[in-house]
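Sample intake sheet
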Amino acid sequence: MSEAKRPGPPEGLVTDVLGEPWLAETIDLRADFEGDVVATLISRPSAATTSRAVLHVHGFSDYFFHTEYADWWAERGHDAYGLDLRKYGRSIRSHQSATYVADLDEYFEELDAAWERITRRDGHDQVVLSAHSTGGLVCSLWAHARRPPELAGLILNSPWFDLQGKAWMRSPAATALLDQVGRRQPMRMFPREVSGHYARSLHREHEGEWEFDLRWKPIESFPVRFGWLRAIRRGHARLQAGLDVPAPVLVLASDRSTTPASMTDDVFSSDIVLDVGQIRRWATAVGPHVTFVAVPGAVHDVVLSRSEPRHRAYREILLWLDAYVLASR
């Protein structure tokens, strides 16, 4: 394993809400139409000094709380980082509309800043970028645009590559209408129904096993606005036109999607958020070297699945890591 001298803790780091050994730092960003904007970088070191790291980016109505996932990486010689994007989780401020951006490229500012801290400041020259759902779309676009030399691999956990639902919702006419409304009335709410089944299946005070802050990942989700959805569809179009991420890519998803009307076993053993067929279809649009794995029984956030599919996912990550990332370094 390559090694680098670990510097002392930089100024501005505080103990994170996750507790020791997690640290958090606020990254000040350019203000937008709502005022001041920040992102938050969360970190924990592995046991030994290392030049390897993993950075995980969350999905929509989400934030970083994936301590088991991070511990798995730390046990394999990677310093672990998580990034709460602007207007999510630790980065939400009272004057902001949670989750809202008008262009996915706005996120490039905090991804650039986090990457600079992880590589130049903290001395890591082999970094795996891991991202879930909407974060998977954002990070694919960023990795294509930036192509950082330290990018050792890209893991996409149920990435959002297309608009789920009936075919007419993806038609040129529907896309044109969404583009028009999103441009003229960006803060208008997009009508939708949220059952709350997914968040309930995860949270330990409901039917799940995970502890997370329901202010930052609410059962009912956050509102979707037309301007934000316009940005997502424009991001989908860019991805579907073909990207060229130079690093090896691993795409993980469940083996099936369902739409349960109640808290049946499907909620706990399938993706009830996205269409896994769409994920499979567009996976190879990310770059020239993509591995796709369907994990039987996995939920939308694969690493928050029940024990058996979750550990199957870890085995798949390790196989991919050994074969395509570590072996090439």
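Comment: The longest helix spans residues 307-326. The first strand starts at residue 14 and ends at 15.
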